[in-house]
Amino acid sequence: MRPGAAAGARAGAVALAAGEVVAALVPGAPSLVGSVGQEVIDRVPPAVEDAAISLFGTNDKLALVVGIVAVSLIIAAALGVAARRRFGVAVLGFVAFGAVGLAAAAGRPLGEPVPSLLVAGAGVAAGLATLRRLTPEAGAGARAATSGDSATSGDPAGQAAPTDPPTGGRRRFLHLTAVAAGAAVAAGAAGGALARWVGRGTGPEEVSLAPAARPLPPAAPGASLEVDGLSPLFTPNRDFYRIDTALAAPRVDLETWRLRVTGMVDQPLELSFDDLSDMRQVEADITLSCVSNEVGGDLVDNARWRGVPLAELLERAGVRPGADQVVGRSVDGWTGGFPTAAALDGRDALVAVGMNGEPLPVVHGFPARLVVPGLYGYVSATKWLSEIELTTLEAFDGYWVPRGWSKLAPVKTQSRIDVPPAGARLAPGRHAVAGVAWAPIRGVAKVEVSVDGGDWTEAVLSEPLDDASWRQWRWAWDAGPGRHRLQVRATDGDGEVQTERRAPPRPDGATGHHTIDVVVADRA
Known about the structure:
The chain is an alpha+beta fold. It has three domains: 5-197, no CATH class; 221-403, Oxidoreductase, molybdopterin-binding domain (Sulfite Oxidase, Chain A, domain 2, Alpha-Beta Complex); 414-520, Immunoglobulin-like, CATH 2.60.40.650. It has helices at 5-25, 32-43, 46-56, 60-83, 87-106, 113-134, 140-146, 169-197, 273-278, 310-317, 341-344, 377-380; strands at residues 259-263, 269-271, 282-289, 300-309, 325-330, 335-339, 350-355, 358-359, 369-371, 385-391, 414-419, 425-426, 429-438, 444-451, 457-458, 460-461, 471-479, 482-492, 514-520. The model is unreliable at 141-167 and 194-199 (pLDDT under 50).
C-alpha cells in the first residue's frame, strides 16, 4: 500500500461526513454527494441507465451513491499519497473536489449558492484538517530534498522518505477504505435523519386531509379474492413502488410552497396547500405502473387517491386554444408532459394530496402530485408538484423523452401471475393460480391461463373497482407430475387481447405474456 493512502481515504470520509452534517443543519443547504449523483442521473447515457436498472433494480440509486463515495475515497487516497511530499497538492485536490460538488449543488433547481458554499467549505476544511493530523510528517521529504539530503547523500538519516507504520499492505488499505466508505454513507443517512429531526421542511404527519366531497364506499367483498400470496387490492403506502430520479425525496416547507398554473392559460394561478385543500376533493381508485416494468414485474400498484380534479383546476385557469400539452414540474426540476385531452376527457386525473386515506408520504410526492390514469408515470405522475404549465406538444419534451422514451405513453394491457411463484415445487393435486391484470382506463374484461402451450382457459375475475384499477383473478389447476409452463393473458374492455409479442420496456412499455415454470412432484 502506498504511504498515506489510508490517511487520505479516512480524510475523504471525514470530508463527506462533515458536508452531510452541515447540509442537515443549514437551511437550504444541499447534500454534495446527492447533487453530484443527480448530475450523473441527468447525464448518463440511456444504455448505462438500462444496464444499471437491470443490474441493481430499484436499488440503483443506492448503488450510485456507494459508487460516488467509493470514487471520492479513491481520489482522497491518491491525495493522501501526494500529501506526504507536497501537502499543497492535497490542498488543491480537496479544493477542486469540493468545487465539483459546489458546482453540482448550486446548479440544481433547489440549490442556493451560499448554503452550498458552506457545505463545500466545511467538507474541504474537515478533510484537510484530518489529513494533516494523520500525516504530521507531510512535506518532510520535500524539505529534506531542498536542504540537500537524499538517499544517496551518504547520510544514513536521509536515505529514505518517511513511511507509514506497517498497516498490513493492500488488504489493510481495502479494509480501511471500506470502513471509511461505510462511515461516509452512514453519515449521509444520519444527515437526512438529522434534517428531519431539526424540522427541515414539513412532513405529512403535520397535515390533515380535507374530507372528500365524493367519497368512495369501501370496496365490495367480491373485489378482493382470498388467495395466499396474491397482491392485495390496495397496495399499502409503505409497499407502493417508487421510481423517480430523486436520490433523496425533497422535503417541502408548506409555508412557502405554492402550486402555480402557468403557460397558455387565461388566468395564471398560484395556490397554497390550504387553497388546494379548500377546493373540491374527490377520491379515485387508480393503478399506476412504470414504463420500465418488465413483463411480470412488480413496478405496478393500486391505491385509492384523493385530490382536486385536474380538469377543474384547468377550468379555473382557462386553457387557451392550441394548448395540447400539460407539463408537470417538480420542486427538484423534474418534468413530465402529457396531452391536455387526458386531463379533460372525463377520466379521474387528479392533483393528488392523499393516498389510501392518508396524506401523501414524502417519497410519493408530498405535498401534491399528479395522478393520471391510463398513462405511464414517466409522463404524467409528477411528484413534489410545483407547477402545471399549459403548452404544446411541439414546444416541450419532458425529462425522459430526450432520453429515448416515447412522448405518448398509454399504459398497455398487462397481466401477472403472483401465485404460484416462478420456480415453485408443488405437490400433485389442485392448486390456485392467481394474479392481477390491468388496462387503465379501458378496464379488464377477461383473463385466461394456458398450461404448457395448450388451450386458453378463462379465469375467475374479482368484481371491478373502476376501469382505472387492476383486477385480481384466480384459476383452479389440477396439477399433474412434471415440469409445467404457465402463461396468462388479459383482454381489455375494448375487446383487445394482450399481445404475445415480446418487447422490452424501452421506448413505450414492455409487452408479452407473463410466463413461469413450476415443478410438480410427489415430494414438493
